TrEMBL record, chain A:
Keyword Transmembrane on entry: yes
GO CC annotation, single: plasma membrane
Similarity annotation: Belongs to the binding-protein-dependent transport system permease family.
Lineage: Bacteria, Bacillati, Actinomycetota, Actinomycetes, Streptosporangiales
Name of the protein in question: Peptide/nickel transport system permease protein
TrEMBL record, chain B:
Coiled coil: none
Gene Ontology MF term list: ATP binding; ATP hydrolysis activity
UniProt keyword Transport, yes or no: yes
GO-annotated biological processes: peptide transport
Alphabetical UniProt keywords: ATP-binding, Nucleotide-binding, Transport
Protein name (record): Peptide/nickel transport system ATP-binding protein
Taxonomic lineage from the root: Bacteria, Bacillati, Actinomycetota, Actinomycetes, Streptosporangiales
InterPro entries tied to this protein: AAA+_ATPase, ABC_transporter-like_ATP-bd, ABC_transporter-like_CS, Oligopep_ABC_C, P-loop_NTPase
SUPFAM superfamilies with a match to the protein in the record: P-loop containing nucleoside triphosphate hydrolases
UniProtKB/TrEMBL annotation, chain C:
PROSITE patterns: ABC_TRANSPORTER_1, ABC_TRANSPORTER_2
Keywords for the protein's UniProt record, in alphabetical order: ATP-binding, Nucleotide-binding, Transport
Gene3D superfamilies recorded: P-loop containing nucleotide triphosphate hydrolases (3.40.50.300)
GO BP terms, alphabetized: peptide transport
NCBIfam families assigned to the protein according to its UniProt record, in alphabetical order: oligo_HPY
Organism: Nocardiopsis algeriensis
Coiled-coil regions, chain positions: none
UniProt keyword Transport present: yes
Segments crossing the lipid bilayer: none
Domain ABC transporter as annotated: residue spans: 3-250
Protein name as it appears in the record: Peptide/nickel transport system ATP-binding protein
An example molecular function term from Gene Ontology annotations: ATP binding
């Protein structure tokens, strides 16, 4: 009785106001500057990364222009000391950065949520085994493993890099999802679904997951941002894709060829700022989402 | 129809199951078709665990749960489980948590249809749903196509009973189904259980409220710390409680027309005769003694 | 007269408008009176209990006054309420048991709390021990963490804490609902004892359980959809209720000893109106078998016999 006997008009306003939840979330979303700003910047850069490369008619690594040219009308972001077009590198790099975020974050998300759901829902010995696995991967110094693995790997493409980032960064997502699934798995409607002869995977996908969708979205965003940072770190220490372009690689060559000492700010600022802005806006976006989904953080 | 034989449930607690917690201790009881059996107990009595074991949501640590002669713990595989749930269904305590809040309430009917009656035509299915809603006295216009929060607790519990009626059920486990409902509507759900009984359903009614157990059931089982304290025909258990624990419970339950002081005075005026309680030979068993026909008392656990 | 509430209106603010949770509530509470405040979920009983001590951020004081011992209680003024809490008015909330800080020992927590209220913990120590003993708790509980106590023990600790400064008024919101019947009786009886010993002058005991409140309260006030429908002595409410809602509610309760075969009890058809845009007039009229044209006007709460108030055109 206790929680029904709460405030008056319970039925009108709170609890499972599911139908309202969608529109209510939207109501708060439209008024949340953090979410709007974060989302705006991320989407803007994403569009830039998708569209702009189509307007670049040469290879970003091609030596086409004057060497070490400061930004001007023809080369919007100037050129490197070898005459490569930094604007071209930047937009291709953005594209690569988003791809690595989606690959790396995606792989981590799939593994993390799968492990988390199964552990949380099944419980018992399965939970203990998966938990142990999670903890082992969690304490592995991921960057060191990545350095070792990528250093020995022949093919150093974007995709392989993403997969490896994914394989090492899923544990915290698994733990977060597990704890949520654990509490949802004890809800009566989950038991009821079992009594309706539903199979386990069906219960997880149609009863449990939809109730934590906001949580899942937020986990993915954090994994996405994390993957971008790790990739940039790997690229920067020279373990990036061999022939590709990425913001991390740009930064590496800028520093490697002494852009800092020579005052070629146009060479190192775009990639550095790009990475910072993407990751920062992802986190701002996440804080905004948290405020929208979590009624306790809403300011009335 | 349903028979529990020396059922135990021991939980492992702590990391890697170091500790043990006994939730159900040596419980044996039966439920016949057309019979309502109340499992009455305070928190920690194991009443809900028993209900969940009958529903196959937990496995007993020891003992057998026989449904029409088959031990349900031997049921393996999805198809066999599905068959079991065709005959045995449950309704739980919290109507609001029994519905997934993001879906409409009548989705519980669709779930039954997709698993059990995929071949039934839309029109035929609609008739069945309307029929089941009629049995639980719900107006279809009020409940179909609504979200759970738009319905009252009483309506939701009746929707869940209607859901169970769509199947060919023989046994319904009602786990505290009215404890969260308002006083003005709980009695309707109780009356509904008695209608179902008339149709030949066996009902295992789990409750902590003695007055509710008394109103609807044929047989009452009073549980304490996982073991049966007293079991017998409801009228006998309530008129002539034999176990000291049952007497204590009855003296504490707030009654509407008698104060505690009046109840105490009455007890002091006619002190009940003590019966000899059975003694458990070990930590695990909990034997019963038949004091009068069908009326059992169990061990004293202090 | 300890407490005098006059035409109190408190609304909840929501995105879709105001929920009229308390819509003109009037009653008096005498010195030494334990009043049971009963009603179904959403009737406003919890809101009334909260309004007497603290409005949360969504609650809005729309009108009406509260007087305690002849002084006005400024419920809308958060600052002015601070000195009143614990000293004059104390509340045991619905989930008090889980509100205890799990990382603090009980004794330490009480000390901190007293200091925060400007009371020297040493000065009340003897009294604290005496009262713990009175509710059947060993002094040892002060050295324990909340998790080590059972629900009933925690509830009694909360009871002792909230009455330590001898408030005039104690509001107990569903304090026994989560307890087992045997503990419930013990807690309810100690509350009466506290009143008898003068630890609190008077008490509002909010509950959904009429049979419990019948055991311990002097008077019972029944609420429905934000209105008071009836108030009278506990015996009168249970044995001779006058308002149709109270009558139907009482007759819907099964008792120990009543069985379905002896006679089927009936519930009240329909459900309470939404309070977002409540209907005019009597709020029970849609479910009331006696309703007639006059019920579209709100019936006033009138004293139909000494000490018995009811709000119904048919009883007035």
């Amino acid at each position: 009785m206790s929680n029904v006997a709460g405030a008056p008009g319970t039925a009108e306003k709170s609890d499972g106001a599911a139908a309202k939840r969608g529109s209510e979330a939207l109501h708060y979303a439209r008024r949340n500057p953090k979410l709007l700003i974060g989302l705006g910047i991320v989407l803007g850069l994403l569009l830039l990364g998708i569209i702009a490369p189509f307007f670049v008619d040469h290879d970003p690594n091609e030596y086409i222009g004057p060497q070490g040219q400061a930004p001007d009308g023809e080369y919007w972001m100037g050129t490197t000391s070898f005459g490569q077009d930094i604007w071209a590198q930047f937009v291709y790099g953005l594209r690569a950065t988003f791809l690595i975020g989606i690959f790396g974050g995606g792989v981590a998300f799939v593994i993390g949520t799968a492990v988390g759901f199964v552990a949380g829902y099944k419980g018992g010995i399965i939970d203990e085994i998966l938990n142990m696995l999670t903890n082992v991967v969690l304490v592995l110094p991921a960057l060191v493993v990545l350095i070792v693995v990528t250093a020995y790997l022949e093919v150093r493409g974007l995709f392989v890099q993403g997969v490896f980032i994914g394989l090492t960064s899923w544990p915290w997502a698994a733990r977060a999802v597990r704890s949520q699934a654990l509490s949802l798995a004890n809800r009566d409607y989950v038991d009821l679904a079992r009594l309706s002869g539903r199979r386990t995977w069906k219960i997880i996908t149609s009863e449990i997951a939809p109730n934590m969708s906001s949580y899942l979205v937020m986990s993915f965003i954090l994994l996405f941002g994390g993957a971008i940072l790790i990739a940039a770190g790997l690229d920067f220490i020279g373990l990036g894709p061999s022939n590709g372009v990425s913001l991390g690689l740009m930064l590496e060559s800028a520093v490697g060829w002494g852009a800092l000492q020579r005052g070629m700010w146009w060479w190192f600022i775009p990639p550095g700022l790009g990475i910072t802005v993407i990751v920062a806006s992802l986190y701002i976006l996440n804080v905004g989402l948290d405020e929208v989904f979590n009624p306790k953080l809403r300011e009335l | 129809m349903l028979e529990l034989k020396n059922v135990h449930k021991v939980y492992r607690v702590g990391a890697f199951g170091g500790g043990r917690k006994r939730a159900v201790r040596d419980v044996s009881l039966t439920v016949e078709p057309g019979e309502v059996v109340s499992l009455i107990g305070e928190s920690g009595s194991g009443k809900s665990t028993l209900g969940k074991m009958v529903l196959g949501l937990f496995r007993p640590t020891e003992g057998q749960i026989l449904f029409e002669g088959t031990d349900i713990t031997t049921i393996k595989g999805h198809a066999a489980r599905k068959e079991y749930y065709r005959h045995v269904q449950g309704v739980f305590q919290d109507p609001f948590s029994s519905f997934n809040p993001i879906f409409k309430a009548d989705r519980v009917f669709e779930m039954i249809r997709s698993t059990y009656y995929p071949g039934v035509s839309d029109a035929d299915w609609k008739d069945r749903v309307l029929d089941a809603l009629g049995t639980v006295r719900l107006d279809p216009d009020n409940v179909l196509n609504k979200y759970p929060h738009q319905l009252s607790g009483g309506q939701l519990q009746r929707v869940l009973i209607a859901r169970a009626l769509l199947l060919d059920i023989k046994l319904l486990v009602a786990d505290e189904i009215i404890s969260m409902l308002d006083a003005s509507t709980r009695i309707d759900v109780l009356n509904l259980l008695s209608d179902l009984k008339e149709r030949g359903l066996g009902i295992l009614f789990v409750t902590h409220d003695l007055s509710l157990g008394n109103y609807v059931s044929d047989k009452s089982v009073i549980l304490r710390k996982g073991a049966i304290a007293e079991m017998g025909p409801t009228a006998r258990v309530f008129e002539n409680p034999l176990h000291p624990y049952s007497r204590h419970l009855l003296s504490c339950v707030p009654q509407l027309h008698r104060t505690w002081a009046e109840v105490d005075a009455e007890l002091a005026a006619n002190p009940p005769e003590d019966v000899e309680l059975p003694v458990a030979p070990d930590e695990e068993s909990a034997p019963l003694v038949e004091v009068e026909e069908g009326h059992f008392v169990g061990i004293n656990q202090g | 007269m300890t407490l005098r509430v006059n035409d109190l209106k408190v609304y909840y603010q929501t995105l879709r408008g105001d929920v009229h949770a308390l819509d003109g509530v009037t009653f008096d509470l005498a010195d030494g009176e334990i009043m049971g405040l009963a009603g179904e979920s959403g009737c406003g009983k919890t809101t009334l209990g909260k309004s007497l001590i603290r409005l949360d951020s969504r609650m809005k004081h729309v009108g009406g006054t509260i007087e305690l011992d002849g002084k006005n209680v400024p419920i809308a003024d958060e600052k002015a309420m601070v000195p009143l809490r614990y000293h004059e008015i104390s509340l045991i909330p619905q989930y008090a048991m889980s509100a205890l800080n799990p990382t603090r020992k009980i004794g330490r927590m009480i000390k901190d709390l007293m200091k925060a209220r400007g009371v020297d913990p040493a000065s009340i120590e003897d009294e604290l021990h005496r009262r713990l003993e009175l509710v059947g708790l060993e002094q040892d509980v002060l050295n324990r963490f909340p998790i080590e106590l059972s629900g009933g023990m925690k509830q009694r600790v909360v009871m002792v804490i909230s009455t330590l400064l001898n408030p005039s008024l104690l509001i107990a919101d569903e304090v026994t609902s989560a307890l087992d019947v045997s503990t419930q009786r013990a807690v309810a009886e100690s509350m009466v004892e506290f009143r008898d010993r003068g630890f609190v002058k008077s008490m509002v005991f909010v509950t959904h359980d009429l049979s419990l409140v019948y055991q311990m309260a002097d008077t019972i006030m029944v609420m429905y959809a934000g209105h008071v429908v009836e108030k009278a002595s506990a015996k009168t409410i249970v044995n001779e209720p006058k308002h149709p809602y109270t009558q139907m509610l009482i007759s819907a309760l099964p008792e120990v000893g009543s069985t379905e075969e002896q006679g089927r009890l009936e519930g009240i058809p329909g459900k309470p109106p939404g309070l977002l845009d409540p209907p005019t007039g009597c709020r029970f009229k849609d479910r009331c078998p006696l309703a007639f044209s006059k019920c579209s006007e709100r019936p006033p709460l009138v004293e139909i016999e000494p000490g018995h108030w009811a709000a119904c055109w048919k009883t007035g």
